[in-house]
Structures are given as C-alpha cells and as structure tokens.
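call fold(seq) -> tokens
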Amino acid sequence: MPTHTRIRMFNTQETYPNQALDNDLCQAVRAGNTVYVRGQVGTDFEGRLVGLGDPQAQAEQAMKNVAQLLEEAGSELGHIVKTTTYITDPRFREPVYREVGRWLKGVFPISTGLVVAGLAQPEWLMEIDVIAVIPDASSDEEGTS
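ret:
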C-alpha cells in the first residue's frame, strides 16, 4: 500500500514545451497527514497564464491553485503551516504579499520570502509553495501562543 498520494501528476514535456525536459512530477503530495504543494504561479491548470505583467493577478491565480490542490488532498487553506514565496522584483512584494495575505487572513503560517533572478518561465513574476496538514479529527491543532 502506498505511503503517499500524488495529486495531478504530469510530465514536464507537456508543461514546458519550450524546454528540453522530461521529468515526471505532480502538483501536490499527501504523505500521512502532511500535504506538500508544488510551487504555484499565475497559470491555471489548463496552462493559461493569468495576469501577464501583473504580480497581484498572478498571486491570486497561484492561491486559487493552492486552494484547489489542498482541497483535492483533503486539506484546506486554514491548515497551511508554511509558505515560501518567490518574487522576481522587490517591487512586487507588496502586491503579492497583500494578495496572499487576503487568502490566509487568520491562518498565521510561518513564511519565507525570497527575491530571485527569475523563475522557470520569464513571464512568471511570483511563485508560492506551501506545506499544510490534515488535522486528526480528535486533535486540537489550534495554538494560542
């Protein structure tokens, strides 16, 4: 019996036709009660870029993707414990973080933010990956400290 579940498997030949890649990946992995979500960008699951040149719109689409993947894995945004956000320009910090913050209001995850020279495609201005949990129905996962 598998110890984890792979969600939305794909091959990079389809995702990055402009690059000579042939890697088998997936959008999320559920391992026990932990969900790891691959970096999400402003592209929907049909491969259409949302928000060309607009970091806020790309962040909104990325968070829509995160929410959907967590749901498919049996979790939800409220169970995110860690985010890592990548932006390609420091000026994108406010619009991207405001949008991510709108989706995660009241969640209080730990967070890492990085400014990077570029992402896998030049039109991508931001990327976010998350780790979430699927709480045990009998446990109290809310902290008060």
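Residues 37-133 form a domain with the 60s Ribosomal Protein L30; Chain: A; fold (CATH 3.30.1330.40).
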